[in-house]
User: Fold this.
Amino acid sequence: MDFYEKDLEFAKIFENFALNEVVNEDGQELPAETRYTAILAVLIGCGGADAFRELVPVALDAGITPVAVKEIVYQATDYLGIGRVLPFIKAANEILEECGVVMPLDNRETVAPEDRLEKGAEIQAKIFGAHMKEAWKEGHINRWLAANCFGDYYTRGGLDLKQRELITFCFLAAQGGCEPQLTAHAKGNMNLGNDRDFLIRVISQCLPYIGYPRSLNAITCVTKAAE
Assistant:
């Protein structure tokens, strides 16, 4: 973050907190790759395009792959809509090219039109339980959810299922107003092995980027999901 020319006092406060106190808080540490995966996701979720642009190169240096950056952005479409995601698609492309990444990246699709619904429903069942295998039959939105959200995106390469469910949690936490869905996806994370302690650490590391109210709401949702 380049605040030093005109905002030196603010820069000292923010960087001491976000890059020192938070990162090194005892019991709240995360591996750098996981930390930046979550931070990139919450920046998309809260519409933080300028901060996203600054942090993508840092995330690449921390071990995030160009493919992972693009997959984080792509999956956000399910939870934010293309109106809010399009600026991040453009930003990611520009930054990756500036970093010397040859575009477009290799194809990461793993499903076809004829099996995307089936594969999406299977993933829903893995995350939320066997009852979700038939949930797509409840209406066209449920069918789209299985085929598009989970079939088109969650099946793609570049991120594993635990990472994809984590970034979904981050999108929902950062945008706010989605607490029922956030609670459900907190539980989904736990079902995949991203336990309560891990999610609290994720929220802690993301707090400087989304603020206290949404972070506290996310902790409440995690606590409720763990009951």
User: Anything to note?
Assistant: The mean pLDDT is 96.
